[in-house]
Request: fold
Amino acid sequence: MVKSLRWRSIIALFAILAAVVYLIPSLGSGPPGWWSSFLPKDRIHLGLDLQGGIHLVLEVQTAKAVENHLERVVEELKRDLRKDKVRYLELKRDGLKSVDIILMRPEDKEVFLDMAAAGYPDFEVESLPETEGHPSFQLVLDPKARTRITKMAVDQALETIRNRIDQFGVSEPDIRPQEDNRLLIQLPGVKDPKRAIALIGKTALLEFKLVDEENSVEEALQGKIPPGDEILYQVAIDPKSGRQTKIPYLLKKRTALTGEYITDARVQIDSQYNEPYVSLSFDARGARIFEQVTGENIKKRLAIVLDNKVNSAPVIQDKISGGKAQITGRYTTEEARDLAIVLRAGALPAPVKIIEERTVGPSLGKDSIEKGFKSVLIGGIIVIIFMAIYYSLSGLIADMALLLNVIFIMAGLAFFGATLTLPGIAGIILTIGMSVDANVLIFERIREELRLGKTSRAAIEGGYGKALVTILDAQVTTLIAALVLFQFGTGPVRGFAVTLSIGIIASLFTAIFVTRIVFDYFYVQRNVKRIRI
Reply:
């Protein structure tokens, strides 16, 4: 018994010491200065409802991703047809399911079919009735390929948004995919929700397009848009009056260079006007394309287009080598920084739509913490007083186990990197009740054994032995329910399940294992004759 008691005491002390070590970083402003580098430094994560922040549910517009894919296929087809010297009358996207093509010469039919079979495996080529003697085909997108494009769009959007939020500097964000192409985003501690939402929702599709200076913008505005051209606008807002003006530009529809070649984007300050701008760096291929485009179009205007809005359209003065460019505008430092972040993180594969938006103020989170702490404190004090009065010294042993239980729960949250939420506090309060309930069961069985005239040692062994099955039955079934909640629940339900699961395991350890050590020490090791219970 003595040897067993020693080993059990060592295990209990080690567990308490480990719990304290994991809990210290969460106390005060963080770990003390002498805290060693190999000791844990993670604080307990506070959920959105305790810390304040924003909750968003975004829907990825996957139809746009499919549309973009088909548009790219149209451009690739044009290039391949030119390469194989196949002439065509018409080549266009048909909705979100196919690409239609009409060949000019019947003798190109076999060449086209071979090219489509070899280069476009995601499409099934269907022959259509000839159009005035010209062979017509439809390249139908395979449903499996469509599903793959949709899934990739959601995955890529998730990764892009995660990169943006990481660079934005939000700690402990919760970003998860949901059903129906939706993304759940929770950003605790964000003090400027509008800025964060703008950063997340910006598609950030950067394109460089040549301005068509040979045709009139006015005529294009009247509907006479030259083939291969489009009208995009530059939106300017007067910072004093807030008045918005739109300047039309007639641009070549073909994109000369896109933002996919960007390797870095940084905020710089213009030495002449003392205004921030975004400096871009391209990779080797992007630098070659940029050099070629600027070299072939000296004295022409090259528009910088972001999300289909013209940012600026400077005149190319000379061939630009080195893969450097800059985006200027009347940006504030924050706007320039956010633009640099989205350009570094890359463009979203498809636009996102905000389905649900909730903002939790920091004051509400602070109130929640205070009220939750007060609930735990009041509930705990009432239980401690009751146990001390009703069960005397044994009640104090149960109170000690109760305090240890709370310490283990908090340390468990820090160890697993779990997030403490308001429902999580409710889980802690529920666990306090269950922890005391286990000791009440044990104490009542010990009382029964004492009433039968057994010795202290026999009463303790009998009491723990008889109560153990009942305690395990109740707490293990609750633990199973908590695990199911954790597996299938989301948000606050998961927070409740986490604290309840950790609390039940801690409760079993403290109420059965630790209290038994104390009883064995007093009534077996120290041979105390009378149990005060």
Notes: DSSP finds 13 helices and 19 strands in the chain. The first strand starts at residue 45 and ends at 46. The two ends are 23 Å apart (CA to CA). The mean pLDDT is 85.
